[in-house]
Amino acid sequence: MSDRSSMNDSKQEWSTSSWRSKPVAQDVVYPDAENLSTVLQQLKSLPGLVTPTEVDRLRKQLADVADGKSFLLQSGDCAELFSYCNPTQIEAKLKLSLLMSLIIIWGARVPVVRLGRVAGQYAKPRSKATEVVDFDGEKKEVLTFRGDNVNGFDVRDRKPDPERLLKAYFHSSATLNHIRASLSSGFADLHAPMSWSFSHVRSPALQAEFERIVESLTDALDFMKTVGADPESRSESGSSLSSVDYYISHEGLMLEYEEALTRVQKPSSKGLHSNSSAEREERTPSEVPYVLSAHTIWLGDRTRQLDGAHIEFFRGIRNPVGIKVGPSMKPDELVKLLDVIDPRCERGRVTLIGRYGAKNVDALLPAHIRAVNASSHAQSVIWCCDPMHGNTTSSPSNPSVKTRLFSDIVTELASALRIHQSLGSRLGGVHLELTGDMDENGFSVTECVGGSMQLQDRDLARNYQSHCDPRLNYEQSLDIAFLISHFLRGQRLGKTSGAFSPAPASTLVNDQAGGSPNEEQDQILSELVKGISARP
Ligand code: PEP
Ligand code: CO
């Protein structure tokens, strides 16, 4: 264990409110403290949105991810709005997650743990507390939009309102209810006919590759049907071909809200499992604190200070947790953080969500992997790649529009896969901002540039919907799923040529303007990267 002098002392007693004695980064100041306290009391009496048994089931499934037996797919909006709580948008997100997981399972031949940034992803950290806006023709400084559970996107509605926390609870609850009801009504039935169209794919080689994968996947599903693996047959884990597990997550930013939805209780015997030798030694657990606002929450890159309130809260909860790891993280700081959050080194308790940016990942990720590998956490963490948050840029034609280049996203993801492979480590998952939303003409959102549909910078205005970060659209999300599937298949079959090129992926990106990739390089990757011609 490392030196703990400058951090949260994990020997100090933890309670659901011990975070209150620490500095709270990204704090929201409510003008009406009394109203806040009334709202929090109400939240404390409401039922949890998820159950401890479900949280423990996810812990078990994440332990499998840490062991390399499953792959993690975490995906959804940057910021959910209350208005997204409608059947069309909820189903679009769910469908996309199911399709992506199916594609990944086909290549990897391991289960996929599906985790939505959904049913509670309302609060946002911001780099600036205020902004200057046009307010009835006048320039005025107002608080920035902090997410629908804090204030409104409308510039006249920026005062933090505690009632929004209650609204967040009820919108999360309605969203989750629709997810659960859809899944238990056969939404995930893989035997239902699927219409795949690749008409948007510009590259003939890529189109052929996608068609090959889908043909093979459809054959596999037909075969399973023939041998009797019908939708009714449940597997040991309780999932079947027609009903699947789907978990919810959000950034654990608003600690008042998380505290109010924490319930200290005994784990159900159903949810118990031996996750590590340390845990096996653990007494039949007495009462433990479960955050029941989501199955898992993550710690953002702006709120992971070693002596801060967020880490204090996160260290005591039973839920598995994510930690965003950005360029400012020092390797020894990362290990200290793990010592505090996961002192018993439970497999799958912590998912490290790297978000370095395509330009930084080669320089920064290896040192982080080496530091963790040299610590007691080497076997227990899950490494996950968030190729979104280090790659946000401005549109060259309109600098006030945020975008992301598909080539940067693919480059970071490809680099992460390659770096882990070369260091004997494993990338266990991916964390994506995406949406399956379409306009009334069936046209996907246009927020990121590139992908197999070769979306250009000039196309961004066509259907730009995000109130926060730019998201991958339906087609771009499937591109990423095919890419991951293709890589994991190559790895499974022991083919280096089926995997990404041994050369850094950035070479591929730079090569794309120049023409054909060399033979060593991976075809599907270079075809995907070719989809980008507009770079700022
Ligand atoms: C996010 O996930 O939406 C986010 C704000 O990420 P990060 O903390 O990595 O910047
Ligand atoms: Co975001």
Automatic annotation (TrEMBL):
- Please, which domain of life does this record's source organism belong to? Eukaryota
Q: Please give a single GO biological process term from the UniProt record.
A: chorismate biosynthetic process
Pfam families xref list: DAHP_synth_2
Q: Does the keyword Transmembrane apply?
A: no
Its EC number(s): 2.5.1.54
Q: How is the cofactor bound?
A: Binds 1 divalent cation per subunit. The enzyme is active with manganese, cobalt or cadmium ions.
Q: In which pathway does it act?
A: Metabolic intermediate biosynthesis; chorismate biosynthesis; chorismate from D-erythrose 4-phosphate and phosphoenolpyruvate: step 1/7
Q: Which cofactors does this gene product need?
A: Mn(2+); Co(2+); Cd(2+)
Give UniProt keywords alphabetically: Amino-acid biosynthesis, Aromatic amino acid biosynthesis, Cadmium, Cobalt, Manganese, Transferase
Binding of phosphoenolpyruvate: at which residues? 117, 324, 355
Q: Which reaction does it catalyse?
A: D-erythrose 4-phosphate + phosphoenolpyruvate + H2O = 7-phospho-2-dehydro-3-deoxy-D-arabino-heptonate + phosphate
> Amino-acid biosynthesis: is it a keyword of this entry?
yes
- So where does Mn(2+) get bound? 78, 389, 433, 469
* Region (Disordered) location: 1-24, 266-286, 499-520
| Entry's Gene Ontology molecular function annotations | 3-deoxy-7-phosphoheptulonate synthase activity
Ranges of biased composition (kind: Polar residues): 1-20, 266-277
* InterPro entries to which the protein is assigned, alphabetical: Aldolase_TIM (IPR013785), DAHP_synth_2 (IPR002480)
Q: Which family does it belong to?
A: Belongs to the class-II DAHP synthase family.
Record protein name field: Phospho-2-dehydro-3-deoxyheptonate aldolase
What organism is listed for this UniProt entry?
Tilletiaria anomala (strain ATCC 24038 / CBS 436.72 / UBC 951)
